[in-house]
């Protein structure tokens, strides 16, 4: 038992009354499990609480209402005696009090009464509203106040503030009817023959009420006059029609009133509300009628005793005891409900025992079965009231004025003809309506703001990992003493008794092997349709029992302590000597060994517990099993078997390189890669080779996306999608898919696409025809409505330069390829597309371009048309196009190629590509300087990431430009024949398979077609659309891969070679390609390092890791202090991981491997806000929030995409096992290219039993390596030096070593 005193007087801010104190406690259990509990404590001035219940909730003066006071203590118990209620006028004194003491005087609860004039005081002794009657005498601020002292003499004053002063009514006029309540005099369940009393505060004259009540069995009604301006009573008799539930409806009819009767003090009202106007009010209430459906159930353990100091019976595992169940009285039931069995009534019991731990993990409350069998025949009334058609005269006048004003402003506008009803509040903006609180003057007020949204966490909970297969027990231990953790019986009892007469039965319960608390539930049902349930608990406990206290995982090289907690129960549990033995199971000695004593003596403490730990050492990978037995004498024994997984110090890593080889005839092209086999765990290393030709799979993927986007080509038709459909066959023909060589068979997937493309092409042409997506004046449109609405849609105001420019360029770029298909559909379609280009799309583009340029020059602020628009238009019109004669010379200059040349550097990436492609399509060499400048700009912004490379969005940017820009740049460089070294092949790889973008929700079909065109032309330039090459990869005399590529459909060639197949000092990899075409090769070394590096490893991602103590004042989710090398046993720590990516990348995984002494806490199971998402959403977009999977060995975070910059992840853990542990490196890697990765520094970490936390030495900043080690070595970021792979030398590993 531990106690902590909380001194509220030390708070910086005194809490307001009433308020609550939230107490959150975390502690470490006996086996170092993290336990968290919270509780709420009410903060009050006294042990009393009062609630004012009013018959009307209104601030309108001159309206009478009743008030009752319900007084209880803070535990909910009633307070005897009447409570006084005072109506206090605070109009004169409240402003001075606020100025003197602040707004705290307006608190709903205080210790001292208000300093105001008491207008009336009344004693309330019940919840009826007719005892204390009040009304506000005029406009102003008032308060209902009740002051009560508790038994200790502490006083508390409870207040309800009423009324508004004239300033407040002026700022917020009276705008709606006063709500009338239907008040039940006495709540609860009634029986047939009773009368239910209701009260209604009637504030009108000459009002009457239609009262209806009943059920599906019948309906009664009556009409009664309501007494003028009084609390009216209405009685409803409960007859047989209400036996299965009843509903009451009161429909009040109010005729037009006199203004002086309803608004005697002249409170201002809105134009939409007239206080004197007639109204109807409908009120409904359900009446619960008791039904004889409940029987009381008792459950007893007659043969079990409750030991002193306990409140629950206890039994030992495998002991048997009877459980008696019976139908007895119904304690707590209300009087109308009978709980006794009738003569001849049979009862059947169902008895279930469930492990309480299961119910805590998956809560399932005891079910009241009677509620499911109670009939609910109460009616639900649908009311249509005439009030819906009654409007204040001001509302109609406002409509007429609004109509006239809108007609004057815009005769063609759609008029708002809504007549606003009472309750409507005009809003002048889109924000919340702020109502100031005035305290007596026209210029005083306060505003308030609402709470902010709380971030949410995402995480995945790992499945249990403790299930073990059946294992034979060693002969050294008695078989009956062993308890297997896997032998977990969650429901040891599920049986039925009966039907029996007399309402009594018994069942035998045999306790299972697993110890703990079990909840026994009994459900009863009779043949008369009555039901009941109850529950009780029983503890299954051994006289001596063992609870495992061991790590859930360890790693090779760890030296740690593991054992058991011995618990002795009974009257003499303390000072019991116990002998504990540990044995390693046969076959586990290779994985785990005892590094100290294997037998220990211990004595239990005053609570009957003692922890016994043995020193163990992890030797090798595997799963070790240990047996621990304990003997306390007097025949008290127990034993258990534990499994301890022994893992490696880190996961497998991948080191890779990739490049392209252009095959040549004759001797063939060769490439050599040096090869060094790192020091890896035995059997953990392999070389994986991947080789492929061309990018046809990516082209087919885009084609499939286009054809599956809208299979039926349904309307409204999408212009960009239909344009893409018309271009797909041309790109597929680049790979000769329509005219394959004799004997060459298409891949089934490619054959399916080829067959579907022809039908889609025909439909696309029909949809692109004039009158559909092509407008006779405005050319190609973005979309067109369905035929019934097409003629009704608003006429186009302008042509789309974007659609017409890309339509012209793509049709002309791809049209010639259709001729090569030798299919009539495509031949005719080619002519149709050219007709649309010549007669509609190009003329529309020219006309709109000239119109926009002229409009820009003739506006209030004359300027040139946007440069990127000119570049896009020129892509379609060509460099030789000139404006018609008579065009304004300034407009001609704005649209000229000379302007594009002079302002070329102001263009973005896509604009430069448009200009470069325009110049490359023109005759002659004019403008090639601009093309070279564009290629130079793109090449300088290329950022390489292993097998891919992209062009950045700007100089120094760490994010790629758009996919369209990268694709057009690749196309321009291909057509220019630019020498880009390895970048061209890597750029093509990126265009073929870019990472998924954060906001890539809407398909861009023109972009997809442009990507297909760029990939097709690049492959054609490298001979990969019609390859014929052989690839041979060797390491000395060892052949690693032989592959032949004779078609763009040739599949990837993959081979995996274990290191054991190579020589001890392997020779470099030699790649030989002979024939025609370009082959792309990727070589990966996959291995688990034998000795993790003690410095961070950077191969595209920088990873850092620190372990710190948790800051208990931060909701236990923030670290504090320096990074630590050792922590005390039982500490709560935060493992902070910081990853830095220089570029925006795609799907990324971060694996935080846990050292053996730390157990991670799942943020969901812990019931805490600690989760990576709750931390990240406070700093950045939710898109940066990864999924989290928590396992004992590792916490894995998975990003859909990772933006450039630094990201912080946090894992809370408990120092659960003492010992010295290897600190494994945290790894971060790209899912698609695992060789783009980073590792934090490895090391060691200690959890000590009796010590203080020890800080780790300060880490220096990362140092850059020369040329990033040229991709041929590892960078030591601590020293800034390269560790070159075998076969490479030099400071930057760029030179080949001498043979």
TrEMBL record:
Major location (coarse): secreted
Alphabetically ordered keywords of this record: Disulfide bond, EGF-like domain, Hydrolase, Metal-binding, Metalloprotease, Protease, Secreted, Signal, Zinc
Disulfide-linked positions: 1265-1275, 1284-1293
Gene Ontology BP annotations: proteolysis
Top-rank taxon: Eukaryota
Subcellular localization, as worded in the UniProt entry: Secreted
GO MF entry, a single one: metal ion binding
PANTHER family: ALPHA-2-MACROGLOBULIN DOMAIN-CONTAINING PROTEIN, COLLAGENASE
Name of protein: EGF-like domain-containing protein
Species for this entry: Ostreobium quekettii
């Amino acid at each position: 038992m531990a106690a902590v005193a909380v001194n509220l007087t030390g708070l910086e801010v005194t809490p307001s009354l009433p308020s609550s104190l939230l107490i959150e406690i975390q502690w470490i259990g006996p086996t170092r499990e993290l336990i968290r509990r919270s509780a709420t404590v009410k903060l009050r001035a006294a042990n009393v609480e009062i609630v004012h219940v009013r018959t009307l909730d209104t601030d309108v003066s001159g309206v009478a209402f009743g008030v009752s006071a319900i007084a209880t203590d803070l535990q909910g118990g009633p307070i005897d005696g009447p409570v006084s209620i005072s109506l206090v006028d605070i109009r004169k004194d409240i402003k001075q009090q606020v100025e003197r003491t602040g707004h705290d005087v307006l608190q709903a609860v205080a210790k001292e009464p208000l300093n105001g004039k008491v207008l009336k005081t009344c004693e309330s002794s019940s919840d009826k509203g007719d005892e204390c009657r009040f009304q506000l005498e005029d406009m102003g601020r008032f308060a209902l106040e009740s002051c009560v002292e508790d038994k200790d003499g502490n006083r508390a004053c409870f207040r309800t503030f009423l009324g508004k002063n004239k300033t407040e009514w002026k700022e917020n006029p009276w705008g709606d009817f006063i709500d009338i309540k239907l008040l039940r005099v006495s709540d609860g369940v009634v029986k047939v023959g009773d009368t239910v009393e209701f009260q209604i505060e009637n504030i009108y004259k000459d009002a009457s009420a239609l009262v209806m009540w009943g059920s599906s069995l019948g309906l009664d009604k009556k009409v009664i006059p309501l007494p003028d301006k009084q609390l009216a009573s209405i009685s409803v008799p409960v007859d047989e029609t209400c036996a299965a539930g009843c509903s009451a409806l009161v429909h009040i009819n109010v005729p037009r009133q006199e203004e002086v009767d309803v608004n005697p003090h002249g409170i201002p009202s809105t134009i939409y509300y007239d206080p004197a106007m007639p109204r109807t009010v409908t009120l409904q209430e359900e009446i619960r009628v008791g039904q004889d459906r409940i029987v009381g159930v008792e459950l007893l353990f007659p043969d079990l005793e409750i030991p002193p100091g306990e409140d629950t019976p206890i039994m030992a595992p495998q002991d048997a005891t009877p459980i008696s169940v019976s139908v007895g009285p119904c304690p707590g039931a209300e009087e109308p409900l009978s709980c006794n069995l009738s003569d001849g009534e049979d009862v059947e019991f169902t008895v279930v025992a469930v492990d309480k731990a299961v119910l805590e993990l998956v809560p399932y409350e005891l079910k009241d079965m009677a509620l499911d069998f109670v009939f609910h025949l109460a009616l639900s009334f649908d009311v249509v009231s005439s009030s819906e058609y009654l409007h204040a005269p001001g509302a109609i006048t406002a409509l007429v004025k609004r109509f006239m004003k809108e007609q004057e402003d815009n005769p063609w506008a759609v008029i708002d003809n809504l007549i606003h009803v009472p309750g409507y509040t005009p809003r002048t903006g889109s924000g919340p309506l702020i109502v100031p609180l005035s305290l007596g003057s026209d210029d005083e007020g306060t505003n308030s703001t609402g709470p902010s949204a709380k971030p949410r966490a995402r995480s995945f909970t790992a499945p249990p990992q403790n299930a073990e297969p059946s294992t034979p027990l060693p002969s050294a231990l008695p078989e009956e003493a062993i308890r297997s953790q896997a032998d977990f019986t969650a429901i040891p009892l599920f049986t039925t008794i009966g039907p029996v007469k007399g309402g009594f039965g018994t069942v035998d319960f045999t306790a299972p092997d697993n110890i703990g608390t079990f909840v026994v539930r009994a459900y009863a049902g009779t043949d008369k349709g009555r039901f009941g349930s109850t529950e009780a608990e029983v503890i299954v406990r051994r006289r001596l029992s063992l609870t495992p206290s061991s790590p859930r995982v360890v790693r090779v090289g760890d030296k740690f302590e593991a054992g058991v907690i011995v618990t002795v129960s009974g009257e003499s549990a303390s000072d019991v000597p116990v002998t504990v033995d540990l044995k390693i199971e046969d076959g586990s000695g290779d994985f785990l060994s005892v590094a100290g004593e294997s037998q220990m003596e211990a004595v239990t403490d005053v609570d009957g517990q003692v922890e016994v730990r043995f020193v163990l050492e992890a030797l090798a990978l595997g799963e070790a099993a240990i047996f621990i037995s304990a003997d306390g004498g007097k025949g008290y024994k127990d034993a258990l078997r534990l499994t301890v997984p022994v893992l490696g110090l880190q996961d497998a890593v991948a080191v890779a390189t990739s490049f392209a080889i252009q095959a040549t005839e004759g001797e063939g092209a060769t490439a050599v890669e040096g090869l060094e086999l790192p020091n890896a765990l035995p059997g953990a290393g392999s070389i994986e080779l991947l080789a492929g030709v061309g990018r046809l799979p990516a082209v087919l993927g885009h084609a499939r996306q286009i054809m599956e986007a809208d299979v039926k080509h349904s309307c409204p038709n999408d212009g960009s999608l239909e344009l893409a459909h018309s271009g797909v066959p041309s790109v597929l023909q680049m790979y000769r898919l329509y005219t394959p060589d004799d004997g060459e068979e298409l891949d089934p997937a490619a054959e399916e696409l080829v067959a579907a493309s022809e039908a889609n092409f025909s439909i696309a042409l029909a949809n692109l025809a004039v009158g559909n997506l092509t407008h006779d004046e405005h050319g190609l449109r973005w979309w067109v409505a369905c035929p019934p609405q097409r003629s009704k849609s608003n006429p186009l105001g302008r042509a789309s330069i974007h659609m017409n420019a890309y339509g012209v360029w793509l049709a002309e770029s791809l049209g010639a390829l259709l001729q090569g298909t030798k299919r009539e559909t495509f031949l005719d379609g080619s002519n149709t597309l050219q007709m649309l280009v010549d007669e509609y799309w190009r003329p529309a583009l020219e006309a709109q371009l000239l119109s926009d340029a002229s409009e820009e020059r003739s506006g209030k602020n004359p300027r040139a048309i946007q440069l990127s628009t000119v570049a896009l238009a020129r892509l379609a019109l060509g460099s030789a196009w000139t404006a018609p004669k008579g065009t304004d010379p300034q407009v001609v200059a704005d649209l000229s190629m000379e302007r594009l040349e002079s302002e070329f550097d102001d263009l973005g990436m896509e604009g430069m590509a448009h200009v470069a492609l325009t110049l490359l399509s023109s005759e002659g060499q004019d403008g090639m300087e601009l093309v070279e400048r564009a290629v130079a700009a793109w090449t300088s912004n290329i950022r390489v990431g292993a097998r891919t490379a992209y062009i950045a969005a700007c100089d120094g940017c760490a994010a790629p430009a758009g996919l369209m820009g990268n694709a057009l740049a690749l196309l321009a460089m291909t057509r220019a024949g630019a020498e880009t070294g390895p970048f061209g092949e890597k750029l093509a790889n990126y265009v073929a398979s870019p990472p998924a973008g954060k906001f890539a929700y809407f398909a861009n079909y023109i972009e997809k077609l442009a990507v297909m065109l760029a990939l097709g032309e690049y492959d054609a330039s490298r001979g990969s659309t019609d390859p014929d090459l052989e690839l041979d990869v060797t390491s000395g005399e060892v052949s690693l891969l032989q592959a032949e590529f004779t078609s763009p459909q040739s599949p990837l060639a993959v081979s995996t070679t274990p290191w054991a197949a190579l020589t001890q000092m392997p020779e470099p990899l030699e790649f030989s390609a002979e024939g025609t075409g370009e082959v792309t090769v990727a070589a990966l070394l996959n291995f688990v390092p034998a000795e993790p590096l003690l410095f961070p490893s950077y191969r595209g991602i920088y990873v850092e890791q620190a372990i710190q103590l948790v800051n208990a004042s931060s909701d236990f989710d923030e670290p504090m202090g320096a990074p630590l090398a050792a922590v005390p046993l039982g500490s709560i720590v935060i493992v902070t991981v910081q990853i830095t990516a220089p570029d925006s990348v795609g799907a990324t995984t971060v694996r935080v491997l846990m050292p053996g002494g730390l157990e991670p806490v799942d943020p969901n199971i812990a019931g805490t806000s600690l989760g990576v998402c709750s931390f990240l959403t406070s700093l950045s977009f939710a898109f940066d929030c990864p999924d989290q999977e928590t396992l004992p060995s590792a916490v894995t975070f998975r990003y859909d995409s990772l933006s450039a910059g630094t990201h912080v992840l946090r894992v809370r853990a408990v120092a659960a096992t003492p010992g010295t542990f290897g600190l494994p490196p945290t790894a971060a890697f790209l899912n698609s290219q695992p060789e783009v990765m980073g590792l934090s520094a490895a090391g060691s970490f200690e959890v000590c039993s009796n010590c203080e936390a020890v800080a780790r030495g300060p880490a220096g900043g990362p140092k850059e390596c020369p040329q990033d080690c040229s991709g041929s070595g590892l960078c030591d970021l601590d020293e800034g030096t390269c560790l070159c792979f075998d076969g490479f030398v030099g400071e930057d590993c760029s030179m080949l070593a001498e043979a």
